[in-house]
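Input sequence (213 aa), recorded before submission:
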Amino acid sequence: MDYVFQFGVVWREFDALLLGAWLTVRLSALAMALGLVVGVAGALATLSRWRAARAVARIYVEAIRNTPFLVQVLFVYLGLPSIGLRLRPDQAALLAMVINLGAYATEIVRAGVKAVPAGQLEAGTALGLSQWQLFRHVVWLPALRAIFPALGSQFILIMLASSVVSAGMDSSVIPSGGLIERIGLPVTQAISSGATPYSCIRKPRTQTAAVIW
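Predicted structure, token format:
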């Protein structure tokens, strides 16, 4: 076997890989923050006393969880312009990631809220706390602790899934690997060069989550 790894080309295009890594981190961080907000809102809707809110939340969760992420990306990026809503590639990618993460986060947060002992809720109600105060002071922190491992795993999954949006974005880690391949690097090494930054990004997040937990 006479295959030889060529690192000179990778180092010459290292700036492109760093740019792709930065775009991946930025996109993933925004998607995580906004997706968590959507997840909390969705969880509250599924636990609402109003049947319409529960139905809308359930339809949203089932629709997203039962369709491939690539289909969701293409729907946002190619489908929305057909109804007059045009987004930049990065905006479309962010919206698709938020919608996807929000559906999974809805179920995770809902499970955490349901895990809070009923006695704590009854005690908060007896103290005269409003629904918002009850959620903020009694439900949210215990629920967050219960769901943190699952939520952290989902955050990592959405970061890895950001590679899918490279079909609509001009610059990310995977297109950076493609650039290296186009300038003469063997395909295997080009793909490896594009995939390596994901491992470098994922490892600190995993360790940070383990320390917090």
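Checked by second reader. The longest helix spans residues 14-46.
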